[in-house]
Amino acid sequence: MFEDADLLRDYYRTRQGRHVAMRLRRALADFWNRAPNACNAALGYAPPVFRSEDQLRALALMPKRLGPRRWPKKAPVRAALVDSRALPVQNVQLDRLLLLHALEFDPNPSRLLDECWRVLDGSGRLMVMVPNRNGLWARAEKTPFGHGRPYSRGQLRHLLQEHGFTPVEARTILFTPPAAPGLFLRMGPQIERLGRNWSPGIGGVLVIEAEKNLYAPAGQAGRQRTAKSAIGRKLAPRPSGAIREGTE
User: Fold this and answer.
1) Mean pLDDT by groups of 10 residues along the chain of 248 residues
2) In what order do the strands lie in the sheet with 40-44?
3) How far apart are CA 248 and CA 238, in angstroms?
4) Nearest-angstrom CA–CA distance, 158 and 185
5) So what's the pLDDT on residue 232?
6) What global pTM score does this model have?
7) Hey, how many other C-beta atoms are within 10 angstroms of the C-beta on 116?
8) Of 117, 140, 141, 145, the residue nearest 206 (C-alpha)
9) 122 FRET partner, CA 20 to 30 A, in 4, 26, 38, 163?
């Protein structure tokens, strides 16, 4: 399991990992708030989607399960080891928050999303990147996306709505097969373009951007609501059997 920062670091140093990181960065290009006083952060394992020379100056909040990891190496540290359910961030502080290698691994995603709602500003936005239940990568156990709990579009939308977020955009990325040799990786741009146009449901990573609903109950109220709603029935099981194609 990719439950250690060193394992994730080593994966993103491989040729395939570099290809994946590039696709993730491109999906995030228009998400960040680049105003001089903006506060951007990512929860999970986000160094692959940040560049140390980038002027974004985002924070990388890493769950305790990953273990300590200094980042970046040649600049002031912008990474911190945190409790995902008690982030060291003031209320309504963040303009943008990314969840990457986070939601699918958390044993209580409802609590995690309530905490995201708390720290986001009233006009803040959340982006969630998780393994796509209908994609090939959810079965690729040699990659981080083959671990944790995959989601379908409908499941993730519903979970976000129950915790005070309004999804505004949903798409899939990463159409290159997870076992692709070098030739396929070199053809990555063409494969991504074909996948988006012809088979958008089988992209390996599901990406949903959502707005914070200012009048939604969160915190303790959200946890009480979650306890009554049997979230477990709505989450995807580990993939098994034939791959299901298409979207919800």
Assistant:
1) 87 92 92 92 93 76 89 84 93 97 95 96 96 93 94 96 96 85 63 68 92 73 43 40 36
2) 79-82, 59-63, 40-44, 94-100, 120-131, 205-212, 165-173
3) 18
4) 34
5) 39
6) 0.83
7) 28
8) 145
9) 26
**Radius of gyration of the chain from Cα atoms?**
17
SS (H, E, C) the chain: CCCCHHHHHHHHCCHHHHHHHHHHHHHHCCCCCCCCCCCEEEEECCHHHCCCCCCCCCEEEEEHHHCCCCCCCCCCCCEEEECCCCCCCCCCCEEEEEEECCCCCCCCHHHHHHHHHHHEEEEEEEEEEEEECCCCHHHCCCCHHHCCCCECHHHHHHHHHHCCEEEEEEEEECCCCCCCCHHHHHCHHHHHHHHHHHCHHHCCEEEEEEEECCCCCCHHHHHHHHHHHCHHHCCCCCCCCCCCCCCC
Q: Please report, for residues 79, 199, 217, the alpha-carbon distance to residue 184 in angstroms, rounded to integers and kept in the order given.
A: 34, 17, 46
| Per-residue tokens: 126 | 């959340």
Residue 96 and residue 127 in contact, taking contact as beta carbons nearer than 8 Å: yes
The span from the CA of 115 to the CA of 6, in Å, is 26
Domain boundaries, the chain: 5-233
Matching residue, tokens 């519903």: 158
Name the phi and psi angles at 155, rounded to 5. Answer: -65, -45
Name the CATH superfamily for 5-233: Vaccinia Virus protein VP39 (3.40.50.150)
Nearest 5°: phi and psi at 150?
Answer: -75, 160
